[in-house]
Design a protein that fits this description.
Blueprint lengths: L1 H9 L1 H13 L3 H13 L5 E5 L5 H9 L4 E6 L2 H10 L4 E6 L12 E6 L9 H11 E14 L9 E2 L5 H4 L4 E2 L3 E2 H8 L5 E6 L15 E5 L5 E5 L2 E2 L2 E7 L1
Parallel strand pairs: 1-2, 1-4, 2-3, 4-5, 5-8
Antiparallel strand pairs: 5-13, 6-7, 9-13, 10-11, 11-12
Helix pairs in contact: 2-4, 2-5
Length: 242
């Protein structure tokens, strides 16, 4: 986790650009999350946004749940500063903290979100346990990540992007894909419901540059593969009910 945070800090300019884009334009994954929440007709009063980055997820959820109380947590101080600005119109508090040791009370949130983050954690099992711990009984945890639902195989990868400043400092990113088998083993005993919703992106994204960055390739059947620097991205949304 510390390595990831240091790499993020080294690539701060790219991160700030990404965070700003997530505020200005709702991502397709954000739309998918909101569709799931609407389908379930959830009305959470308390929402935790863990590994919140620049606060884009909470910023958009604030329009859906304007009366909710938000708590945003991230290890990166610079990200928390951006998040604080992004959610200044909401009932929200933003704190620097580790997903492995959340300084939040157990059973205290109706909805816990961890968006586009778990694939980059050194210890995903511990992180998931913390997300579930702070969720109220009967509440929901949603986490988007790279998941392998077709095969019982986990993929643990370290990525060095030579187009970013972090590479010059010898820093690498984790880019992990977790099987449904592992997810069940890690948290199945802690929840009453577990599912992974495969995320099929509905738009074309052209390649941009030679570093990390999602683009799509359309297959003959109309489906789109999501790729980044030659890697297949099996995005999905983990859906847990405590």
């Amino acid at each position: 986790m510390e390595r990831y945070t240091e790499a993020i800090k080294a690539d701060q300019a790219a991160g700030a650009e990404y965070y700003a884009a997530s505020l200005n334009r709702k991502t397709e994954q954000q739309k998918a999350l909101e569709s799931l929440l609407r389908t379930l007709r959830l009305e959470p009063a308390t929402i935790a946004d863990i590994a919140c980055g620049g606060g884009g997820t909470s910023y958009h959820l604030g329009a859906l749940y304007p009366a909710a109380a938000f708590t945003l947590v991230d290890m990166n101080e610079e990200a928390i500063a951006l998040a604080s600005d992004a959610v200044r119109g909401l009932d929200a508090r933003c704190v620097v903290g580790s997903v492995y040791d959340l300084q939040l009370e157990s059973n205290s949130f109706d909805l816990v979100i961890c968006w586009q983050a778990i694939s980059w954690f050194d210890n995903p099992e511990r992180a998931l346990h913390e997300l579930i711990r702070i969720c109220k009984p009967g509440g929901r945890v949603y986490a988007s990540s790279l998941f392998n639902v077709e095969h019982d195989v986990d993929i643990y990868a370290n990525v060095e992007d030579h187009t970013r400043p972090s590479s010059a400092q010898g820093m690498r990113y984790a880019y992990n894909t977790y099987s449904l088998t592992s997810i069940r083993k890690w948290v199945g005993h802690l929840v009453s419901h577990l599912a992974i919703h495969e995320f099929e992106i509905p738009i074309d994204i052209p390649p941009s540059g030679r570093g990390l960055g999602t683009f799509t390739v359309r297959l003959d059947n109309g489906k789109r593969l999501q790729l980044s620097a030659g890697m297949l991205l099996n995005w999905g949304i983990l859906d847990l009910r405590k």
